[in-house]
Fold this protein.
Amino acid sequence: MFDTICSIATTLGVGAISIIRVSGKEAISIVNNIFKGKDLEKVESHTIHYGHIVYEEKVIDEVLVSVMKAPKTYTTEDVVEINCHGGIQTTNKILEILLLNGCRQAEAGEFTKRAFLNGRIDLMEAEAVMDLINSQNDLARQIAINELQGYGSNLIKKLREDLINIISNIEVNIDYPEYEDIYEVTINDLKDKINDIKEKLEKIVKEYEDEKIIKDGITTVIIGRPNVGKSSLLNRLLNSNKAIVTDIPGTTRDIVEGNIMINGINLNIIDTAGIRESTDLVEQIGVKKSLDIIKNADLILLLLNNNQPLSKEDLDLFNKVKDKTSIIVVNKNDLEKRIDLSSLETNNIVYINTLTNEGIIPLKEKIAELFNLEKIMTKDFNYITSARQIAKIKECLNLISDIEMGIDNNVDLDLLELDLRHIWENLGNIIGESYDEELLDELFSKFCVGK
Amino acid sequence: MEYDIIVVGGGHAGCEASLAAARLHNKTLLITGNIKNIADMPCNPSIGGPAKGILVREIDALGGEMGINTDKSHIQLKMLNTKKGPAVWALRAQADKIIYPKEMLKTLNNQENLEIKEAMVDDLIVLNNKVMGVKLENGEEILSKIVILTTGTYLKADILVGSNRSPGGPHGEKEAKNLSDNLRKLGLTVQRLKTGTPQRILKSSIDFSTLEREDGDQVLRTFSYDTLPLYKIEDQEPCYLTYTNEKTHAIIRQNLEKSSMYGGYVKGVGPRYCPSIEDKVVRFADKERHQLFLEPESKYYDDIYLQGFSTSMPYDVQEEMVHSLKGLEHAKIIKYAYAIEYDAIDPLEMKASLENKKIENLFTAGQINGTSGYEEAAAQGLMAGINASLKLKGKDPLILKRNEAYIGVLIDDLVTKGTKEPYRMLTSRAEYRLLLRHDNADIRLREYGYQIGLIDEEKYQKFQAKLNNIDKLINTLKEIKITPNEKVLIEKLNTSPILDGISLYDLLKRPSIKIKDLIALKKVDLKYDEEVLMQAEIQIKYEGYIKKALKEVERLKQLEDIKIPEDIDYLKISNLASEARQKLLKILPTTLGQASRISGVNPSDIAVLSVYLKRFKNEKR
């Protein structure tokens, strides 16, 4: 039913080796057509072969080709992976040749979609794979692997069991009202049960927020008046870590200017180019734009000048960010201190000097302290890891508050139980035990290219 | 002489099927083994109860007979679950086992287009997979365009008592010896099911003075939307409660091997929800007692039905068991309990219209489809009668959705999930039970009854007037406001303070306020009948929850609306799991929604199917 698809499985332009993955009925024959070396149609499954990619009698690259035959492959179809030399030009050329030979460019997440549609992985695993691909560091990868092994599933299964116990008891009370020996569930039983479930679900949400930090990093914005040294601070932060400055999309619609690691956690510094170039932040950019950027950030570094008294703009900025996690970074501490911070209600103040490297390490320590990074790093994460799943859990929490409201309003138990059933269904949805189309569309559109 | 429709079997399914068929102007023949046993109640003497009572209301709303007939013949009426919300209220009648069949027979006899014949059907006449009529035991052939089989538990029935197995139907009737074998020969899958019934006890031999008494409601009620109460509250007969005890359990344990069930004499699969007493004692070993109900069977004879005590123990053990019960120490058993095994067809082999997939124009309804219960049977009988008639007129069948009726849930479950035990309707089977209430069966279904032609103009106009009145009342309640100044009125309501002006409509949403409190305010003429008041009250009070349920219906409608074409070739869809493929091939679901409810068809199969259907649709374009 499915045609043969291909795509570049590694990040383009990074690393010495790129991998191009091909999956489908004709995967082996198509690659064989452009491969000079052993006859791939005759090799054993799960073997690697040395050779060259040749097109119009010209050698394009020296490659290693892995041949994996159905059904023991990721997609359960025939899969071939071409390991070629990294570099945008070569990799793209090979991809192009594959397309010319009858492959189709895979859509986002299509390999995993096939693995799912072919029954190789369940819904929860599919999402975990997506996280695995997206995970930027080792700890996140560990969470993703745990997920694959079903910890998350088990937790949800346990909650569902709990729920079905009380649900079935209430249903029995409805269907057999005259049996006096059958325990009649009371509102108080329901209260206890939902309190328990609520606690567990809230814990999952909290864990998720922490996990999000591990997986997605801390979205950080540097703000401050012009010429206060924002670019210098950025460069200091980046240089000190020898981080690669990239242009990859961040978690928000903004562009990540660069990212550095602190205690194994990514600090994604969001491009605030617009803000930096303006002369009057609040007035010129417009309140909305700046508020949006601030709203989406996990951390705000408000940069001030040690050598100048607090201005009205500084105060405006401070007021905008005081409800967020923020650090006041005071630059130019080599110059005479003319700033008075006593009116700012915060303890998160770090003095730095971007001309030297002074204060950069204390700043990083401060960040680690604010996000409790040490603790996060040592936690066990067995929980739910995708935004879709968390959305479902939040839906459950909403239903729980509906039930609580219902209890306060003396709503009949049999009506409250309907919400309980929905919670049960929602949880089933998380582990793929009930189906709705919406879920699949949403799920698969989120997969990145090449798994 | 050819009939339009032949109905085989005069039980509750057969009565509804033949009445619907005849009322829809089809020349109809009802064939039954014994006219005296038409609409017989061989098991418990009650009609209705949770979920089942709502089935009866739905039958009534569509123009069936069961509700009307129950109103003519019950000896006790009770609304159950009144301490719970309106979604689970359920009416239950103790029907008089003499009067109920008598009244039903009267109705059948008076029905135009309907003939009744006493005979046993042996075989179907089938040509090119299309049924043409029936063949009787004596070899006589009767032709018809459509045959509806409503044979109940009579197919190859065996009565089991202890190690004793003897052929025969309920009430000492003759079993249908050959029909199920012949159905098998025609290619249908036949399965063996089992059910049972408890002892009947002589009323005058029971010491009621030591037992708990359960009376009927002290309010007059009816099952039917169209009848007035025909009984007096004080004329109702009481039921009584008793319990098993350690002694009973000891007797059962000692004699376990003597029961048909545990002695290994039973082949059929019995229902989990209706276990025999030996089953209960074994499976719930730590339970000290089991509750039993003593139900009167009729005003005209002395039998008391011992509900909860069904067993397949030999007679002597039954004597011992019964005499161990409180109040029954000296009880005289009039009829012993027995188990009955019978053949049923696999409901997965029928369409949602109740027509067989393999044999055209053959419909089946009731226990032959693997269900249990008078109400479940009647509901299917009615639908089979309606759909047979629609088929003869060349019209699409009436298929009720799961969010429209318990009948829809019942039939969808049967044709989608099948059943391995006698299927009983339960509230928990209905995911939209808040929408499928006792009170609103007419609002859900009367329109269909009218369109089909089972609800006459007069009844329909009455129904329309009711709808108008509900609307009017709700609007009035929205318009009338009560202000903080009207202190006397507010005091009367005994509710939390009113700060701004509030409409009576919003006031009614407060938990403590009832619609009758508002009427007592006399702010406006609110002279509506009880039904209208109750309906408005429920719709307003539960608006939030009802809306939530409707939203859920809307969400799932997307799947329900995706039709699966009849000519789909599941063998061509290569990525379906093999279990799913087999199930889909057998069940042939008509929508993606139905497919998603088949056990063994997983979300990934639905995804594959959905992708295939999209492509299929595009190709056709």
Observations:
- The interface with chain B takes residues 1-2, 116-119, 122-123, 168, 171, 174-181, 409-415, 418, 421-422, 432-438, 440 of chain A (CB under 8 Å).
- Chain A has three domains: 5-106, 151-211+383-445, 218-297+299-370.
